[in-house]
Amino acid sequence: MSSIFLFFSELVRCKSIHYDSDLPTASVIIIFTNEAWTPLIRTIWSVLNRSPRRFLKEIVLVDDFSDRAELGEKLDLYIKYRLPPLVKLVRLKERHGLIRARLQGAKTSTGDVLIFLDSHCEANQLWMEPLLQRIKESRSAVLVPIIDVIDDNTLEYYHGNGRYFQVGGFTWSGHFTWIEVNEEEQRRRGSPVGPTRSPTMAGGLFAVERNYFWEVGSYDDGMDVWGGENLEMSFRVWTCGGTLETIPCSRVGHIFRSFHPYTFPGNKDTHGLNTARMAETWMDDYKRLFYVYRPELQTAEWGDVSGRKELRNRLRCRSFKWYLDNIYPQKFILDEDSVAFGRLRNNVSQPHLCFDNLQRNEKTPYNMGLYNCHNFLSSSQYMSLSKNGELRREEMCAEIPTYFSGNTEKVRMSRCHGRRGNQEWYLTQQGQLIHKVTNKCLDRADKQSMDDVVVSDCTNSWTQQWWFDHYAPL
Ligand code: UDP
Ligand code: MN
Questions:
Q1: How many Å apart are CA 37 and CA 39, to the nearest integer?
Q2: Ligand 1 atom 13, closest CA
Q3: Where are the domains of the chain?
Q4: At the N or C end, where does the chain have fewer CB atoms within 10 A?
Q5: Closest ligand 1 atom, CA of 117?
Q6: Rounded distance from Cα 13 to ligand 2 centre (Å)
């Protein structure tokens, strides 16, 4: 069946849903700092044109201390003479950063529901009704639309395939990722256009009942400029009694850009610092895995989070383990989900060599390398032998070609598929790591630091003896 057919069938499905005539009203909050004129105006007009006026209480623009000339008087005049009175503008007197700018927007808003948008979006047809309907049904549901891509060169709107979309995940390094909707959730939600639970959200575009936004702790106002607030809100909402859902019938386009068109005062790594605040507050002991990737942040000056911890106690939020077990069960926990983990070393002869990703890009398949063992457990040398026999890193698993040409073959890291097969390994008492399908052994052979690691025929050689730092108790 062609994707065009699917696309139309989802559209029809969405259009045939009944939305109540008395839905809560919405304040749409659009924050910006030095946004270009046309995307900002496009965002505003798409909301005006595509939201039923009876539900659109207001649009609150928050100017986070822009200095682009056209965002000054020209914008004031445009709002005064060209836009309806429901469009309001709040000008911040100093740079707040996106977190505190959104907080200002929320304070000013009076609608029943807050809908936050970035300043380079296009709301699509029928985008608002499904959000308001779901919040009417469940006031503690925090909602995200499907975010379509607007090309950052042509500004063209790419309407995604109707049925297929992804939800939010995270990496232990504290970054947002897109992940597939797991099978259990596909069953649970019933319809492909039903509210779909998402472990995390991208952050810029979401809807939340106004009072619930404040009840559940709004934002951490100790976070600066950009980054980390989306995972903070995701973990907070889930563990403190709410839900986070993608609403497939609501679609909003967003210009994804590869750079930030604004400054970071003091050149701070605000994403890292904000994420450390998040990890300290919400991740319990699992913050250890974040610090494997960001050891320097452990002692960085991310400030005081005692107020946020009090909030967490006051709301009696559940543990991060509960979140992992119940909301994101497919997330691989580097140590807990493993029979062995840590550096994977061959240490019979000097120098000790360890598995090391050699800083290779882990988004696409790559060969696993070897490097002199570090004297601490760095993320580049962190390996796990998972409970289902994967020799892996966070998302990439070791495999070797099943056609075996020569005596040795390189070890390829590919996305983990969870179906054993070519990604299954086991450990022997002598420290051999054997690839099950081919029956070959990991071999240091004659390799040196910076070389790729290989497998070869199993022998009793010391070059085939590997040791992990840690082994799970049997
Ligand atoms: N923003 C802001 N103040 C800042 C940084 C960002 O008001 O200090 C606004 C920005 O104009 C945008 C939104 O916050 O509307 C999200 O930022 P951005 O789009 O750069 O984040 P991305 O979508 O790239 O993650
Ligand atoms: Mn954006």
A1: 6
A2: 118
A3: 3-255, 338-471
A4: C
A5: 15
A6: 29
